[in-house]
Design a protein that fits this description.
Length: 178
């Protein structure tokens, strides 16, 4: 049995030597497919459109929007007036994600007993784009909170707390995938 398999392998190698075009196809096409798949799936995705619904319209909420805009993955495309307009933008594909900052965000952030909340809404029709946008927004929001808490600590005479302060336990980030 092994002798038959060995004869078949030798026959195939003789065929490859006789037909260089077949050899090229057998080597180059899988290699080309591998390169194309790696390029298609390994690229860094950036520039997803983000709709910002800012009910608070405070300097702190604008700072949060700026922090989110500074990520390479997200680009602010529009500022809808209400949640229905934000939902339309997501449904029409004009925005991949939406950032909702509720009224009273700055006041809740400044008050130690309140929990400031923001909501990130993502379009789930493209799972990769939606999850990338969610991760980018969450990272930007967490960095923003750390910086704000460090500034707050410096103002209170606590020195530089940037390495000691993580996201405050009172921050609530709501994530909605539609």
């Amino acid at each position: 049995m092994i002798h038959r398999i060995g004869n078949m392998v030798v026959k195939e190698f003789i065929q490859y030597v006789r037909d260089p075009l077949l050899t090229a196809f057998l080597i180059l096409l899988p290699l080309l497919q591998l390169v194309l798949m790696a390029q298609a799936t390994g690229r860094h995705m950036e520039g997803f459109p983000l709709a910002v619904l800012d009910y608070d319209r405070s300097p702190l909420s604008r700072s949060l929007v700026t922090a989110v805009e500074n990520t390479p993955e997200l680009e602010t495309c529009c500022y809808p007036e209400d949640m229905a307009a934000l939902q339309r933008l997501l449904d029409e594909g004009k925005a991949t994600a939406g950032l909702v900052i509720p009224a009273g965000f700055a006041a809740a952030f400044a008050h130690p007993n309140q929990s400031p909340q923001v909501q990130v809404v993502a379009d789930a029709s493209n799972d990769v784009a939606g999850s990338t946008a969610l991760r980018a927004a969450e990272g930007a929001i967490n960095d923003f909170v750390r910086r704000q808490m460090a500034r707050w600590g410096e103002k209170r005479g606590g020195g530089n707390l940037s390495s000691e302060v993580g996201p405050p336990p009172s921050l609530s980030l709501g994530v909605t995938v539609r």
